[in-house]
Amino acid sequence: MKLAKILAATLFFSVFCISLPSRAEDKPFPIAVISGQDVLLKCDQGVQVAKDLDAKFGDRKKQLAKDEQELLQLKKDADASNGSASKVKAFQTKRDKFIADSQKFQIELRQAEAAAFKPVLDKINGLLKDYAKEKGLKGIQERTGYVFIDPSIDITNEIIKRMNQK
Q: Where are the chain's structural domains?
């Protein structure tokens, strides 16, 4: 008896759900997708900011890469010396300095990137709002994380083009 009621309720619910028009049939929900990173780094203004940051921080990046290679060599020397106290101490000192320098550099670089790219991001956001209004879009979603996206809703290249016009 109880099973019959459950089956009847399930059947009723299934028929009810099937008879409902879907949201897509009622009214389309216009959205678009974008690669924000591509827009940021491929528009003319973003390319220039990246070049400026590379000019400002490029030498320090190279120095850190050189320091890392020296650190690796010190590690090899310390390992080859069967634990020589002086070589191990030299490695540890250089390692600690490298870690501190790397962390300081990363913080400074991130702060500089945030400050330098902020006007570009503000311009992109304003452009996206205008574009959404113009095209009647209800949303613009970052395209990462999707397994498949219909290319017709990807507006990345259009936004890059518009960024370069302004």
A: 22-165
The span from the CA of 114 to the CA of 117, in Å, is 5
Reduce the DSSP state of residue 149 to 3 states and report it.
Answer: coil
145: tokens are 């994380």
pTM of the model: 0.73
Cα–Cα dist 135/132, whole Å: 5
Q: Note whether 133 and 106 are within 8 A (CB).
A: no
Give the tens place of pLDDT for each residue, 22-70: 444 455 679 999 999 999 999 999 999 999 999 999 999 999 999 999 9
> Residue 19 and residue 22: Cα distance in Å, rounded?
9
Tokens of 48: 């220039």
Domain 22-165, what fold?
Protein Binding, DinI Protein; Chain A (3.30.910)
How many CB atoms sit inside 10 A of residue 87's CB?
18
153 in Cβ contact with 30 (< 8 Å)? no
